[in-house]
Amino acid sequence: MLIRMRNVLSAVVLSSIFCSVFAARPEIVDDILPEVKKQGQTAYLNCSIINLQSPAQVQWIKLTTPSGLPKHISSDETVLIDEVVEGQRKYDVVKYRSNDSDIYQLIVRSLTETDEGNYTCQIYLPNQNYTEWPRESGSLTVQIAPTIKADSTSAASITVQENQNITLTCEANGNPAPNITWKRGDGFPLPNGGFQQMGGTYNINQIQATDRGQFICIADNNIKPPASYRVQLEVRFAPYCTAVRDRVGQAQNQRFHAKLECLVAANPRSEVVWYKENKATPEKEQIQDNDKYKLEQQDDQRLKADEKWYTLEIKNVQGNDYGDYYCTGKNKYGEGQAQFQLFETMECQGHYCPSVIAGKAPSTYQVSMVTFMIGLIISFSINKCLQR
Prior knowledge:
By secondary structure, this protein is mostly beta strands. It has two helices and 28 strands. The radius of gyration is 45 Å and the shape is rod-shaped.
């Protein structure tokens, strides 16, 4: 009887101890919220635990590492990795109480791309199977502003011949992955239409002279600052000649001049020659710089490097000066031409006309009116005198 009572008492005591141990089993009670931070900032991951008793320990482990092996960061509040960045410890673990939980907060400073990944908070339980340890994982995302890969970009300057095809390439790193956009530096539409082209590869077919200029690759992932890369596209092409005004008027026999203006774009630079059409033949006769004609090249900062502004001044316009004129440009890729017409007007045209206020010669009508008024005044004065 005594032995039976002792067995019952022992069973009760063991049951009580078992229940006490089972009830005191530590647990992780909350999810570890994901952390999203920019490069260089500090991240905080919180692990909430209840019923933690020695010899159980809280461990922080980084599962995703370049080596593929887990990185054991801490045990309770002791950091196992001795790493200092910018004068501060890379990792720290701070314990504090919140409601009924103990919070073990993992601090990761000076974030870089390698810090991104999954971090696991686990409770080490001696003499228990590893798979039964309580554990919870949380993710750390490190946002990184874009950078353009130098080894994947087009050259800073590319030279092609007109009507050829070309491919511009641009690749970028960043987190999240950046979007790549191409646009022109001068704000004009792109060769294939539109004002922007998405994607790291941009194909331009049948390049024209008007396509020349600066192209900009922009990588953006909403993490400032965006990255950009510039490519200067140079096109070799035959001359394009454009008349500033293709019809110019001027009065004859009044010692008035006329000026024809021609814009010539060419790469390489062209030889520019002016011609006048002979009405009798009709053949084009080359114009030389002399007392009758003045040939000049004007400077204008608004022009591109491969654009030039040429002028032909026709002095003291006479009747035989009227007709068709030609501005021609020629280089090894071909020839271009602009046509002008000089026609007769009754009055002076252009900048060469003197002003009446500034001493301009009066017209025949103005002289007649003045003479008439003076005669009228004189006649009126004489009649007054005779009346006396």
